[in-house]
């Protein structure tokens, strides 16, 4: 059963004062309050200039922020997208914080707020991979968006966009698998991970950007 609709203060929903200054404009969900019949969605905003972005996804029933696991942020050309998953039915507050990349302020202001009512949590949802700082520099994850011990782990196709990388590799329990550059900054490989099922193994996507071939930056982290 869905939780009771929360009471919100005046001015909470929609664009906040810093919205125009940051240069964000909603593309897909222009009303700040809406219902969904499924428990997954993607929200997109256009951006006039590169931005730094973070979010909160707060389950109103518990006042708990679940964004670290259930929101995946990707930068695109002229846009930013937020893939959101809702593990239970009920009301959620989705808060977006943003700042132009040229602004060196450490605090990101709240620029837009949604109230989302998930009517039914029909599909099982799982945490997205952890994103590291280097991934947020215009990298893109095509697949897999979710990887855990409930997934098919034989012949997993990894496909990522990593601008300016010399090499990209998957590391699982000390085993390295290099990805192939298929053009236009796209890197791909099929990787067998079935031997790690239910062993709580970290699987990371890593990239080399410097002349020293031994130095890799972690982009993403899964657990299986």
From TrEMBL:
<dbReference type="InterPro" id="IPR056564">
    <property type="entry name" value="Ig-like_KY"/>
</dbReference>
<protein>
    <recommendedName>
        <fullName>KY-like immunoglobulin-like domain-containing protein</fullName>
    </recommendedName>
</protein>
<dbReference type="InterPro" id="IPR053041">
    <property type="entry name" value="Transglut-like_Superfamily_Mod"/>
</dbReference>
<feature type="domain" description="KY-like immunoglobulin-like">
    <location>
        <begin position="20"/>
        <end position="129"/>
    </location>
</feature>
<dbReference type="Pfam" id="PF23265">
    <property type="entry name" value="Ig-like_KY"/>
</dbReference>
